[in-house]
Design brief:
CATH superfamily of the largest domain: Nucleoside Triphosphate Pyrophosphohydrolase
Structural class: alpha+beta
Number of helices: 3
CATH architecture of the largest domain: Alpha-Beta Complex
Strand content: 25-35%
Bound molecules: zinc ion
Helix content: 10-25%
Length: 294
């Protein structure tokens, strides 16, 4: 069975990768809470979720031996009321014939909203596991803090917790036009919104103003927060804003962007998938009554 993701999201909170998208099927716990009985396997190879050919559900009990050592699996919580363990599979591992892989960043990965969101969460957890083996202070080895996702240094006792990086993403309006940009790495023809990481000393609105000016030469006013989305590739929190054009001529910063322009709302280019807050902001702007256009 192949799933289709929703065509629209009434609220930003309902977007994939946010906890709400998971909550009926999954309860996040911590590795020390592993009950020690068999359960589901969340197997990730890069951003690809591995499933058995004969099932749309996570592998249960059956662990393909060719994939690695199940002892390395990390307990992350309960999926559909059973233990769920996460294992990162090396990109070099050749998949056995009974296993298929699905890129969770595909526009339509064919996964349920909750399974897609779980796979995203797994990606963020694996990133934390990979980057938290040694202490930032002294390079000592790290040990888990019982009942938490944080870790403590066995040498200097510093405590470290998963790092989530705040980013802004902003939709700018000028009359019936939207400011859209494109990065060279995106699929041909696709445009989206200006986005960027928060820097030292900035509040979110200041990041919005700075990123827009740096990347497009545009000044804005009336910066308004609209909602946010967890973006676990690997560890961003996207905070979404709208703003109104104030002044400036388009001057696209060519180091980061390939192109940028004003598009009238009835003639928009190819847009990002509906699972992203970028698209949610655009859809809301185009159909502010809360009924996004198709
Ligand atoms: Zn240390």
């Amino acid at each position: 069975m192949s799933y289709k993701l929703p065509e629209s999201y009434a609220s930003c909170e309902l977007l994939p990768f946010n906890r709400t998208a998971l909550e009926t099927d999954f309860e996040l716990q911590t590795p020390s809470q592993d009950p020690g009985v068999s359960g589901y396997w969340l197997l990730l190879q890069g951003t690809r979720l591995l499933l058995l050919n004969d099932s749309a559900e996570l592998p249960h009990d059956r662990f393909p031996a060719e994939l690695g050592d199940p002892q390395q699996g990390i307990y992350i919580g309960c999926w559909k009321n059973e233990p769920c363990r996460l294992l990162g599979i090396s990109l070099k591992t050749e998949l056995p014939p009974q296993v298929r892989s699905i890129n969770i960043l595909d526009k339509e990965p064919g996964l349920s909203l909750s399974l897609l969101s779980l796979a995203g969460l797994g990606n963020a957890v694996l990133h934390w596991e990979k980057t938290s083996r040694f202490c930032d202070n002294c390079a000592g080895s790290m040990v888990r803090i019982s009942g938490e996702w944080g870790k403590g240094c066995s040498a200097c006792e510093a405590l470290h917790y998963p790092r989530i990086h705040p980013c802004i993403i902003v939709l700018v309006r000028r009359d019936n036009q939207l400011l859209l940009v494109r990065q060279p790495s995106w699929p041909a023809g696709r445009y989206s919104l200006v986005a960027g990481f928060v820097e030292f000393g900035e509040n979110l609105e200041q990041t919005v103003a700075r990123e827009l000016y740096e990347e497009t030469g545009i000044r804005v006013t009336n910066i308004r927060y609209q909602g946010s989305q967890s973006w676990p590739f690997p560890s961003q929190l996207m905070t979404g804003f709208t703003a109104d054009y104030s002044s400036g001529e388009l001057n696209i910063q060519k180091e980061e962007l390939e192109a940028g322009d004003w598009f009238t709302i009835d003639n928009l280019p190819e847009l990002p998938p509906k699972r992203s807050i970028a698209r949610w902001l655009i859809d809301m702007a185009v159909a502010p009554a809360g009924k996004p256009v198709e």
